[in-house]
């Protein structure tokens, strides 16, 4: 391990990587001299790896568009097929959250990127008519490996940035990763339009070299932070923290909606409005693209106005967009339905950015109260805040992603029972209303003037 002076850029070793022993982004002088440069470099290469991870995680939302009648899989079977990687990716986010602390952020980025070769190659082998359905389910489950990358990437990047820049940095990291969803959908659209639905292996062939490139660049350009090493105890502490589960619940409503709709949008268009695979693919990418691009804006708005306030009004907007979708379905308007669905994607993106800003703000606010009351010194209090916020980001990412599973299972049941997605949308509307209430009650009720009151720590979340 190499000890790095506060004002030095460490010497790079492509094989062993760099371990940075001194890292204090809250020190303005350190941040200006070297911190910002190092953090930004790690951010961009983290985005690349996470971007491809999202593409592989959601590739089955594209592959099902290649599955015509010759595959013998009905709508319910396809909704289940895309739900499987959602579930596996959600579960994997828990161990992936701890991986940067155990192995180092740079080291784990290399490993997690390389693992994406497994589901991609397996899918290339089995994508053909006549393959048993259970084989498709098994290979789709392996595709869940791509879902774990988000949690480790966010926990790692959270450690690099000062509090005042976390909303923008985490929003940019997550948004750049999320764009992997519309990108693979666009590539799929191009292949369907040029080579037809009989050429799914072209899609997979495009991503194999990209995975290798991401792993190599992570090895050459990223760093490990020593203070994260063996900090797995933060995960157990975070599990005992009530705020972990509140934020996880809210993240089900934002990111869970984003990833669930990303998997389901094309299938809904095909089964509710009779769109062909090409017609569905031609609009499927629009929602995820806009939702991804606007995510950093959600983080920036949260930096300026407060994450809880932006999150509250964003859930109101999501509820209104859901009403538009339900109304469009009732009158059979494809144009209005598409507009409402795309608006839902946009608001999930804003909410993704604002909720992730809330997490570090919660624990830094608590640390501030502890310091002001004399319960703790500044250094241990703020170090504890960084430890817990990194762990909670991973846990919330895992639990939130389960929302994608619930959405696809709801659509599966809805289409199986009524040949329509309307019952599913009504259940989503109820959930968004509950999220509005929770956000207000926990974070936005008037705070007593007594500085010792526990809720004063959340006054600026």
Give a verbal description of the structure.
The chain is mainly alpha-helical and 461 residues long. The protein has 19 helices and two strands. The chain has a two-stranded parallel sheet. It has a single domain (19-458), classed as Growth Hormone, Chain: A.
What are the defining features of this structure?
461 residues; mainly alpha; Growth Hormone, Chain: A; two-stranded parallel ribbon; 19 helices; 2 strands; disordered N terminus
State the total count of DSSP E strands: 2
Largest sheet, strands/sense/barrel: 2 strands, parallel
Overall number of structural domains = 1
Share of β-strand residues:
under 5%
CATH homologous superfamily classification: MFS general substrate transporter like domains
Shape: globular
What is the N-to-C order of secondary-structure elements (H for helix, E for strand)?
EHHHHHHHHHHEHHHHHHHHH
What structural category characterises the helix and strand content?
mainly alpha
CATH architecture: Up-down Bundle
- Give unreliable regions as ranges: 1-6
Write down the CATH class.
Mainly Alpha
The strand order across the widest sheet is: 1-2
Counting DSSP H or I runs of 4 or more residues, the number of helices is 19
What is the gyration radius calculated from CA atoms? 22 Å
Distance between the termini: 37 Å
| CATH topology term | Growth Hormone, Chain: A
Q: On the 0-100 scale, what is the average pLDDT?
A: 87
């Amino acid at each position: 391990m190499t000890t790095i002076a506060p004002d030095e850029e460490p010497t790079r070793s492509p094989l062993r990587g760099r371990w940075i022993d001194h890292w204090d982004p809250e020190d303005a002088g350190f941040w200006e001299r070297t911190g910002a440069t190092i953090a930004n470099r790690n951010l961009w290469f983290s985005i690349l790896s996470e971007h491809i991870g999202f593409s592989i995680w959601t590739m089955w939302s594209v592959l099902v568009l290649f599955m015509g009648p010759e595959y013998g899989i009905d709508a319910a079977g396809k909704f289940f097929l895309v739900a499987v990687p959602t579930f596996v990716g959600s579960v994997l986010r828990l161990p992936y959250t701890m991986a940067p602390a155990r192995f180092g952020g740079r080291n784990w980025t290399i490993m997690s990127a390389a693992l994406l070769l497994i589901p991609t190659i397996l899918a290339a082998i089995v994508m053909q008519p006549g393959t048993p359905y259970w084989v498709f389910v098994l290979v789709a489950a392996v595709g869940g490996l791509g879902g774990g990358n988000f949690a480790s990437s966010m926990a790692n990047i959270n450690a690099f940035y000062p509090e005042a820049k976390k909303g923008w940095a985490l929003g940019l990291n997550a948004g750049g990763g999320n764009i992997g969803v519309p990108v693979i959908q666009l590539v799929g659209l191009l292949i369907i339009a040029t080579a037809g639905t009989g050429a799914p292996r072209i899609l997979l062939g495009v991503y194999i070299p990209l995975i290798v490139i991401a792993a190599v660049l992570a090895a050459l350009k990223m760093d490990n932070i020593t203070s994260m090493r063996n900090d797995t105890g933060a995960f157990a502490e975070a599990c005992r923290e009530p705020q972990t589960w509140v934020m996880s619940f809210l993240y089900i409503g934002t990111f869970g909606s984003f990833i669930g709709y990303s998997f389901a949008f094309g299938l809904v268009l095909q089964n509710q409005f009779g769109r062909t695979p090409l017609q569905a693919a031609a609009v499927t990418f629009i929602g995820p693209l806009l939702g991804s691009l606007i995510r950093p804006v959600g983080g920036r708005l949260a930096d300026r106005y407060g994450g809880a306030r932006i999150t509250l009004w964003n859930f109101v907007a999501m509820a209104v967009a859901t009403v538009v979708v339900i109304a469009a379905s009732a009158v059979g308007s494809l144009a209005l339905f598409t507009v409402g669905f795309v608006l839902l994607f946009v608001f999930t993106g804003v909410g993704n950015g604002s909720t992730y800003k809330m997490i570090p703000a919660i624990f830094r606010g608590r640390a501030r109260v502890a310091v002001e009351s004399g319960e703790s010194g500044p250094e241990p209090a703020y170090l504890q805040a960084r430890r817990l916020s990194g762990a909670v980001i991973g846990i919330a990412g895992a639990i939130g992603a389960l929302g994608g599973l619930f959405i696809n299972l709801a659509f599966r049941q809805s289409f199986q029972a009524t040949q329509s997605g309307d019952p599913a949308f009504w259940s989503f509307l109820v959930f968004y209303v509950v999220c509005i209430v929770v956000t207000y009650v926990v974070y936005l009720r008037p705070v007593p003037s007594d500085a010792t009151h526990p809720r004063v720590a959340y006054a600026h979340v």
